[in-house]
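Appendix C reproduces, verbatim, an entry submitted by the partner laboratory led by Prof. M.T., so that reviewers can inspect both the input and the predicted structure.
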Amino acid sequence: GERIRRLHGYFVSCYRRQNPDVQKEIGYPPPDSEEIAMAHMNVATNQVSNRFDCLGLTLEMPFKDCATNADPERGFDVRRAKRLGADLVEALEGI
């Protein structure tokens, strides 16, 4: 619902402030309606959000590089992956 959508937007904002590799344009936003979420309970974020009435999230690491913050020399390396994961914790603390 609307509460989850607001939480998701706030989380993404917090996460982007922490890390420039967070891709707002490419991601997994909450479903547009309860009906859509219920039709896709095989998606973990929908299942978690529905079962526990909380924000469910998917963190997908870029395979080669971040589309919105590309580094042509190194790509998405181990250092960036660790930072993305660590910054997720910081962003969660923000909400």
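The radius of gyration is 14 Å. Additional entries are available on request from the coordinating office.
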